[in-house]
Specification:
Rossmann fold, eight-stranded mixed β-sheet, 311 residues
Amino acid sequence: MSWTASDIPDQTGRVAVVTGANGGLGLETARELARKGAHVVMAARNLEKAATAEQDIRRQIPNPSLEVRKLDLGSLDSVKTFATEVLNAHPRVDILVNNAGVMGTPRQETADGFELQFGTNHLGHFALTARLMPALLRSQAARVVTVTSTARHFWGKLNVDDPHLTENYGPWRAYGQSKRANSHFALELDRRLRAAGAPVASLVAHPGYSNTNLQAQSYQSTGGEGRSQKFFHTMVQRVGMSPADGALPQLRAATDPEAKGGELYAPRFVNSGPAVRRPILQASRRPRDLEILWELSERETGISFDISGVR
């Protein structure tokens, strides 16, 4: 039997934070967690779109427990403000889904001068997780789920000396680097949580080839000039999974009682199919590679993410 959203256990009394909850995978993740009784903090950069997403959920689910908050992962100040608001409102967070992202854009920089994809997809989520860790540690069994992509295998080697690709920038190289960083961060976070004896598990999820607005935004970001972006936008409309199906791996990672820290959940057939636990290649979890990314992330964000010292 395939795992579906109906297999999500009751989430009543649990608090979930979902980034990028205004559409696509984030919206479907927020919807299903709310359907099962969780209080969902819908984090989004565009509050107008987030309000529309909230109403979409409310039309389908009677009396969901939802809260919309502004979060721009491309701004460390925004991340800090968002995390402070969440900590003040919710002493405990049980689920954090690091879902939001940008893909295949021309070279741009965040408010902090980071390359847009690495800064938004990875560094913003690194900072957010660090700042929400006190609330996660107050949960009896919290989960942090970070979303990656198969792009991590093809273009993902981290340029330690130039992580923001000021030279030799390529949109897919930058995307792949950010998605490998997502995977490495999740695995190193879990290792450090285990070492600290913390009641928090960190997992990786891959949504497969899902027909969301991510490809459309990628194509639009090129002004209609990006051939590869146009190709992916066209193909995903023809063969991509629905957002509801694409969200199942991250929902399973976040809620399945059998799921464990350090695991990857993805479609059975790499980019399509039911959500299952998939193996992680040894080459994708070399300890030194994970440590290097962590050290670089602390340096870039200015955040010392020492789990044993978090209160």
